[in-house]
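Can anyone check this?
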Amino acid sequence: MDARRRPTATAEAADHPPEPRASDALPLPLYLTNGFFLGVFFASTYYLYRRWIYKAQSSIPLHSLTFYELAGVIGLVASIIYLLGFFGIDFVQAFINKNDNYDENQRFILEENRSIHCSLPPKPISRPKIDMDLPLEDEEIVNRVVSGEIPSYSLESKLADCFRAAKIRREAIQRQTGRSLEGLPLEGFDYDSILGQCCELPVGYVQIPVGVVGPLLLNGCEYSVPMATTEGCLVASTNRGCKAIYASGGADCVLFRDGMTRAPVVRFSTAKRATELKFFLEDPLNFDTLSVVFNKASRFARLQSVSCVIAGKNLYIRFCSSTGDAMGMNMISKCVQNVLDFLRNDFPDMDVISISGNFCSDKKPAAINWIEGRGKSVVCESTISGDVVSKVLKTTVPALIELNTLKNLAGSAVAGSLGGFNAHAANIVSAIFIATGQDPAQNIESSHCITMVEGANGGKDLHISVTMPCIEVGTIGGGTQLASQSACLNLLGVKGANEVSPGSNSQLLARIIAGAVLAGELSLLSALSAGHLVKSHMKYNRSSRDVTKLGS
């Protein structure tokens, strides 16, 4: 880097010796001389003031001076002369020097700025410049990709045109496999928006229809909930549940925990050393220190807890942290890496095997998520009146209570289910996840749910609730920034980050998902208890169109 820096004080002193000042001739250091004359000034002023008051009261002429009064006058005059010379003249001199050196300083700053702009250009956008060595015709580029001369993954960087890269890659894939991709849309999508963010090696995009259910009356507010799905009857059934909830006064939802987790696995030479680190991490006296190290990697991450599990010489450390409106896996991973680097100071023999040791546990069914929670933990409930149960849901309160007990509770227990004590929570979670740009793979733990159904008001009405301990969602980052998914978030009123209260948007999204799951559970259980499920699917989930003629 050849950018010139501003000259330091040492360099300036070497090139331009300082001009001599009157203070250089003083026998004492400057600060002592200044202090002495300031003291003389205030002491003389105070002494003369008291003497003059005394003379005025005693009718003594003011011009009649004693030896001490004469010394006070001399001290006052001398101190005034010194202080004016030190502060006033030095100020004028500095002002004059400032004007004299203005042009030279400006010239240096301008030259410095020009040098910096030339040597350090602004950071370029992610789109690279086109490779001029590439042939200009798409056909020749396709042939080179097929032959392996040009790697398919490098097309975006070489062409600087994401759509053209996807088009060429698509044609190369068809020639290499001998199979057509006709029917998979290519045009009408912003491929620049996914570069380096959502998907690599794109050749098109899959169309998934989006339906809207609602209004869902939740905590006194109405929401129209988007659901992206290809399963017939799912949107209609969930919409019926929303109708029943609305007619009964709505649902209430409470978020009682919010914390994303990441659990690295580290190894030591002995189990004793592993337990020493475990005791250190779980000691409350060390938590503040760990929090400072953890939190400095992000503006929004705030360490909540650290828990450890020993397996021989291996230690699994589960960090739990708030992550604002982001789902937070990348955020918390950076924070955990900070802590691991810090721990190496006291535990240099620690061997980090992986930043994720599956004790988190991410995208896998795990009892720790079901018990401890991960992401947003919510409970949602509603009391459905007996009239709504019979008129809208076409069933009875006793039938729903019995079905939930035998199916969702006993049936799931017989199957050895883990977090699956529900009818079809994953259906609603997946549909909303896809519509709003969440990670579909996290549907695994996000769909953990237990549905409880009980009688209310003497058995005349129905109380239904869903408890979901690990809904992992965000409203910024990842797929939430794509146009379609961003539009669905905007429909819910949770698009982007909440600037006033960070984390509020993602928490509200989790509540809405739980409310939609409640509606879906209520409707499906009603259909099952009334024997309408198969009839509905045969009527609404079977197309009579001849799909073989759709492409012609």
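Reply from J.R.: I decoded it. Confidence is low (pLDDT under 50) at residues 1-25, 91-125.
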